[in-house]
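A student in our group prepared the protein record below, which I am reviewing. Here is the record exactly as it was handed to me.
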Amino acid sequence: FTNASKGVYLGVTSATASNLLDDYEEGTWTMSLSDGTSTAGSTTGYYTKIGDRVFINGVIGNVDTSSLTANQDLRIVTLPFTASSSKSGLQRTIGTISVSGISFVSDAYLTLECGHAAGNELRIMETRTGSGSNRMLVSEYTSGSADLWIQGVYPV
């Protein structure tokens, strides 16, 4: 094998640029809830970046959202890396979310969506069977007692 100056060649017996893993990082990031203008609360999430993909997970719990505007989209802001805007469609539905203390329709399921505005926020999509999708509003989060468990992956 040829010595990889910065990384490891995977799955090959000779140096091939497309098989070079040269970008790996693990860390923490601080996320908050937002209405697009103001933020509320903050908590630590965890990420792993491998190449052009970032894997995230974390919990936001018991955040007081009374300072946020009720009829605005609920956002999770400050991703560890800005999502790519050049990988069209890949940044839309990025992961799963479990909730407690959230008001949404019984036949809906929730997913995380990424890639809006500056590409540095997540929004929660509420998809209803046969009725399309809506973004979760601040008013659907029970201030001071709701919990969000998030897990996802997005391109950078």
Remarks:
- The CA atoms of residues 91 and 114 lie 5 Å apart.
- The longest strand covers residues 39-50.
- The mean pLDDT is 83.
- The radius of gyration is 18 Å.
